[in-house]
Amino acid sequence: MDQRNDKRTTTVRAGRRAGAVALLLAGAMVLTACGAGGSSDGTAADKRSGARPPQGTTGGDGSAPDAVAPDQGRPSEESGDTSRPELAAPDYLSTFALDVDTASYGYARSTLGDGRLPDPANVRPEEFVNSFKQGYERPKGNGFSVTVDGARIPDGSGSGPSDWSLLRVGLATKAAPPSSERPPASLTFVVDISGSMAGPGRLGLVQKSLNILTDELRDDDSVSLVTFSDEAETRLPMTRLQGNRNKIRDAVEAMEPAQSTNVEAGIMRGYEESVKGHRKGVNNRVVLLSDALANTGDTNADSILERIDSARREYGITLFGVGVGSDYGDAFMERLTNRGDGHTTYVGDEEQARKVFVDQLPAHVELRARDAKAQVAFDRRNVKQFRLIGYENRKVADEDFRDDSVDGGEVGPGHTVTALYAVRLREGASGEVAKATVRWLDPKTRKAYEESGSARTGTIDGRLWGGESQRLQVAAVAAYFADTLRGGDLPGTPTLRELASRAGKLANETEDSSVRKLATAIGQAEALRNGTEPEDGGDEGEGEIG
Q1: Number of other residues whose CB lies within 10 A of the CB of residue 265
Q2: 98 CB contacts (<8 Å, ≥6 apart)?
Q3: What pLDDT does 39 receive?
Q4: How far apart are CA 370 and CA 441, in angstroms?
Q5: d(CA 324, CA 345)
Q6: Sequence-distant (≥ 6) Cβ neighbours of residue 334 within 8 angstroms
Q7: Residues 319/309, Cβ–Cβ less than 8 Å
């Protein structure tokens, strides 16, 4: 996710509803189930020169069509009925940067467990959906597999299908190799020791997390430790693990809460240390552990990152954000990591820390793709309307899909990325519905590659609830839940009670504890909305990578 002077990223989050009333409105969204998708051959794609080839047709053959400019003043992923004369011809392309963050879901569950409804502005549906296993076929190489499938959403009465379907675009990278086979890592830990980190589940949890990671890292890995409150301090220069584990643990245990939160100072010092300890051929990453409640120094994420831009571009250093605490600066941390070539997660307890720093470690420190973007081309002959669920702050202009200077997302091994669309078909629709193409840069060679997959009307015609794909149903529940929390209006949204029931049933069918925790969170939200006492035992943290 290299940031260059001419980069253009669309970061305006649309459709946020503020206020408790809007938070509790149930949306009506169409999610569908049934799965059959295909993927085309991956091809190396050189960056386009100044001359553009003729524009392709939406949903046509070949690689993704050149983008049609979005309608003035209208989001590019929403299209209206062309029978309405007051509307311009709809745009049938949807383009966005890939996102593997899960912190929004983890923090929402933590908030619900504390007996509070999450702030709608902090609810990002894509992070709810991407917290759960989807079971996509993995690619054989280091690129992506592309799966496109879906199902028909029931009508409001539940007596039959509506004219809306849920389309699922699933992207997956190859599973992570065993720890012994991954490249060495050079990690700089930047730890918030401000006064706000003194509460439960904050600095103490960070110390436990770093001790877990110290045990997990290999002898040929290296770590450095930077702390910050009102100022930043290097507690440990870059140090090999071999023979130094006790030294590292002593530095971690010596951390104590201090004063204010100067994230700017911490990140700048962290990148300085990472550059000093930079090693060629290894994974160089800054790991920020904080409640992200910046109150001293520069508190603007973009301007902070501008100060270390050359270090990121020249040395390829990426940023991994780990959020902690019941009061957490979610938007600030997400902005930092999105613009810092990385991603973010949320850790609420020691069990979740072990999952992030042991089970999922390769996915958080390695890269399989840089500046990855997806473009979905809908066939206007069959599609009347469509809507991308989430990804509001990851939008990319359609014409920038193949402009490799435009910011995309970074994706590691073992990750899956899911994008759900509510799609309304035309009467009598038959044939191709959508073609999805993912484009990414090889992290080492910076060569561009593409992979595509498509879905036809028969692919998305099965029933959603009780259909063949349990994982599609889990994704639908997660998306509906998120949309309800933020006061959305998706077609076909069940009530929270119905969602909790469906999640519980799916937890039994899949034997997946993360789906059980989803059911618990939905039940807590319903109780809070109705003014009743929520159940105990809220579980912090995100679901699964896979």
Answers
A1: 21
A2: 171, 369, 372, 373, 374, 394, 408, 409, 411, 417, 438, 440
A3: 38
A4: 5
A5: 9
A6: 101, 103, 104, 124, 321, 344, 393
A7: no
Burial class of residue 178, CB neighbours in 10 A (0-12, 13-18, 19+): exposed
Backbone angles phi, psi at 21, to 5 degrees: -65, -50
Angle at 472 between CA 469 and CA 473, to 5 degrees: 90
| Residues of the chain below pLDDT 50 | 1-90, 536-546
d(C-alpha 113, C-alpha 132), whole Å:
19
* pLDDT confidence of residue 45: 46
| Per-residue pLDDT at 176 | 86
- Name the pairing type of β-strands 318-323 and 144-154: unpaired
In sequence order, which residues have a C-beta less than 8 Å from that of residue 28 and are 6 or more positions away?
A: 156, 489, 490, 491, 492, 493
Cβ pair 477, 506 in contact under 8 A: yes
pLDDT tens-digit map of 11-45: 333 343 333 333 333 333 333 333 334 434 444 44
pLDDT of residue 543: 44
Pair 29, 495: CB distance under 8 Å = no
Nearest to 440 by CA among 64, 183, 110: 64
Q: Which residues contact 280 (CB under 8 A, 6 or more apart)?
A: none
Q: What is the 3-state secondary structure (H, E, C) of 328-392?
A: CCHHHHHHHHHHCCCEEEECCCHHHHHHHHHHCHHHHHCCCEEEEEEEEEECCCCEEEEEECCCH
What separation, in Å, do the N-terminal and C-terminal C-alpha atoms of the chain show? 22
Strand partners, 217: none
Return the pLDDT at 359: 83
Pairing outcome for strands 409-411 and 432-441? unpaired
Element (H, E) at 416: strand 416-425
Closest alpha carbon to 134 in 154, 122, 124, 148: 148
Write out pLDDT tens, residues 148-164: 999 999 876 555 667 89
Sequence-ordered list of residues with C-beta below 8 angstroms from that of 476, at least 6 positions apart, any chain: 31, 32, 33, 166, 420, 464
Long-range contacts of 231-240 (CB under 8 A, 24+ apart): 231/262, 231/265, 232/262, 232/265, 232/266, 232/268, 232/269, 232/270, 233/269, 234/269, 234/273, 237/273, 237/276, 237/277, 238/186, 238/188, 238/273, 238/276, 238/277
User: In degrees to the nearest 10, what's the CA dihedral of 124, 129, 131, 134?
Assistant: -160
In angstroms, rounded to a whole number, what is the distance separating the alpha carbons of residues 439 and 375?
Answer: 8
DSSP-assigned letter for residue 541: S
Look up the pTM and report it. 0.80
